[in-house]
Amino acid sequence: MASKILLVTGDAAESLEVFYPYQRLQEEGYQVDIAAPARKRLQFVVHDFVDGFDTYTEKPGYTWPADLAFDEVDPADYVALVIPGGRAPEYLRNNTELQRIVTHFFDTDKPVAQICHGPLITAATGVLDGRRSAAYPALQPDITAAGAEYVDGEAVVDGVVVSARAWPDHPAWIRAFVEVLRVKAPVTGV
Asked: Bridge partners of 129?
């Protein structure tokens, strides 16, 4: 069996931020499981910028089934964690089962990739204190309030945690995450 990576998400996650790491990490040989609050078909969204708007717009994106519910996840079965952005992290950060999962990855020093609004989850879990993290720029106050240093960068590496601002950063973000994985959690069982 291939090494497994857990991707945690929910409705209103940014489509690109789910599918790019999902497919790219499979290309590397990992099995990627998607976990959400419940096993169901998730509705993702597309965030984009439109002239004349002060912030991004949101349109319906792809749908995709969750492989597992958060309460079914044994984080010890996974070598790494991916936390996409979008609007989903706004409500997922309060889920105690997800907090249990996230805490495991930080307590055991396993690789974590987070992007855009994903750091709202790690901030709420209390694991960003003393770290450096990128995030969607509007989240700078949230990152700072969580005790972390906000970094405006496309691939911020802090130990085994790799963060980025948003989907335009995908190439640098995943390239840096794969470098961490190759050292800390290389593919096995392929």
From this structure: none
Strands 132-133 and 149-150: parallel
Does residue 83 sit in helix, strand or coil?
strand
Residues in Cβ contact with 138 at an 8 Å cutoff, skipping those fewer than 6 apart: 55
- CA–CA separation, 140 vs 143, rounded Å? 5
Tally Cβ neighbours within 10 Å of residue 38: 13
Catalytic residue set: 117
37-71 pLDDT, tens per residue?
999 999 999 998 889 998 888 999 999 999 999 99
Work out the number of other CB atoms within 10 angstroms of the CB of residue 168. 11
Summarised one tens digit per residue, pLDDT across range 28-44 is 999 999 999 999 999 99
| Contact between residue 175 and residue 21 where contact means Cβ atoms under 8 Å apart | no
Distance of CA 132 to the CA centre of its chain: 15
